[in-house]
Each structure stands twice: as structure tokens, then as C-alpha cells.
Amino acid sequence: MFSNKFGIEVEFTGITREKAANVAAEYFGSSVNRIHDSYDTHCITATDGRIWKFVSDGSIERQRKDGRRIVSAGSDYSVELVSPILTYYEDIKTVQELVRRLRKAGGFANKPCGIHVHLDGANHTPRSIRNFVNIIASHNDLFYKALQIASERMQYCKKMDAYLVEKMNTAKPKGFAQIETIWYAGYHEDRYRHYHNSRYHFLNLHSFFTGNHTVELRGFNSELHAGKIRAYVVLALALNHQALMQKSASSRKVQGENEKFAMRVYLNRIGFIGDEFKSCREHLYLHLDGNAAWRYGHDLRLDNHREGDENNV
Q1: 258 versus 97: which is more confidently predicted?
Q2: How many separate domains does the chain show?
């Protein structure tokens, strides 16, 4: 599960791109190379040669703190951290420490901000891509509640389209070309356009068929919270691994009479086992109803967990 490569994009505001880049440069013991392109890209080259970037994003609501108030801010307060290619065990602590420092410097995420995890598509097959579509479709409601996807972000991470799911399972495509045709059906714009409207879903395959050949998961509200970001990365890698390994996956919706129990069973099934992932499980249970330990009976109750400290890993 953790051998698969990934990249992460974290949107936030509160500080300028220049300040964010300087925080990263200090952490990596490097300097900032500013590129005056349309994204006002600030690059930091780490000691291992990989490049971390801070860029602008038009969807971010630009804000800053003025004493105890949060006020509107200029365009330089639109900040998106773009990581290089990462692997979990080698790089997750680096990601966590960097976001802690950005938070300490004054960065924060507001409701329109999101986190996007890009998963290496090299090992995917037509079967595994179809699996991925069905896995997300069957867990749409559970994931959206667990992740508390803000209404302000729904236009950027829509639920899996029911027509696409039905078409995928009826046609049972054997090749990527067939899947690509189904994915873009109903859109009249150039499919090679970077900001193609098909990309704005929890599961984005536009990035798989064009550009960097990755499967993108967009269903995470942005956080500068080390523990939550780790939970999101683990979930993305686990979903990816499930899609790759299973012979097939159903699009039938998960029953939600006890949401926490349903999520616990599912997370255990895809690898969230043991103390190592206890805090990850708790972050994903937090907003669900029910009891994680009992499916039925008098023990079924609302079980509210206290949100962990931002350093909780």
C-alpha cells in the first residue's frame, strides 16, 4: 500500500506566497527561486534535489489575520503548496513538519480551500480504474460526511456521476480508450484543456488521461493540521491499493444505519489496522453518527471524539 508514489497539493491563505516559500526554504536549508509566470511560482530545491513549489490558485478566498479579526487580503495571499513526487514512509514526516511550520507562521485554510492527492497511475489497468470508480461511488455519502466537504467546495469536488458509473458497469470497458470515451461523454469542450470541467469530482481521471498520468482525489477540505493531512494521505493510498488489488468492486452504496461502525469495518478492511493508524481512524470517525464498536443493540449511540491536537500523528 505504501510503496505507491503520490503528490499532494495543499491550498491555504493567511500568509503570502513569498512568506510561505521562505518558511519552506528555511526548513530545507535552501533558497527561493521565483518564476514570474501566471502562477507566480516560488520554487525551493531540497537537499535531495526535489522541488517544492508555492503557487497561486484563483479558487482560494484570500484572507489574513488582523489582530483577532480575519479580513480580506491581496492576491499574494492565495497560496497552494505543491509537493514533488513522494513516498509515504520516506516523506510523510517532512510533509507534516512543513505544514506545522506554515501554520505557525500564520497560514490557515478557509472553507473554499482543498487538498488534492495525486496517485501514481503507472500500475493502473482498465480493471483497476473501473474498481476505483465503483469504490468511490459506493462510499459517496459516507466519505462526504466523514470528510465534511464544505458546500463552498462542492463545485470543485462533485460526487461520482451516476450516469458515468452506470455506463462504466454496463459497458465493462476492457481498454483505456473505452474508459476515456465514457469519462468525457457529455462534455463539449476540448478534452486536452487543463481545466476541463470533468476534473471537478472527488475522483478525477482527467489527470490520468492528460498531463501527468495520475489519479487525483479531490475530496479533502484543506488543513494545516499534521494529523489530519496524514489521515487523508493514508486514506488516498489505501483506496488506490484497494482499486489495484481487488478483482472487482461493486458500486452498491454502503449501508449507513451505524456510520461509525461501517467506516471502522471498511477502514480495517483496507489496511487501517493497529495503533499506528489509531489517530487516522479517529479523524475519519469524528463527524459520523453511531458507535464504532457496536453495530446493533443498546450500545448504538452517538459517540463523539475529541478532536486531536494538531501535532497528533
Answers
A1: 97
A2: 1
Three cell numbers, residue 171: 459497458
Q: What is the pLDDT of residue 257?
A: 76
Please tell me the least confidently modeled range out of 137-151, 216-230, 232-246, 247-261. Answer: 247-261
Q: Is residue 306 part of a domain?
A: no
Distance of alpha carbon 61 from alpha carbon 77, whole angstroms: 9
pLDDT at 303: 47
Which residue in this structure is represented by grid cell 472553507?
111
Burial 146-156, CB ≥16 within 10 A → b, else e? bbebeeebeeb
Distance CA 279, CA 90 (A): 19
Q: Which has the closest alpha carbon to 63: 25, 111, 114, 97?
A: 111
Residue 309 within a domain: no
Residue 258 lies in a domain: no
In a domain, 286, yes or no: no
How far is 98 from 23, CA to CA, in rounded Å?
8
Q: Give the integer Cα–Cα distance in Å for 308 and 225.
A: 10
For residue 107, the enclosing domain spans 6-245
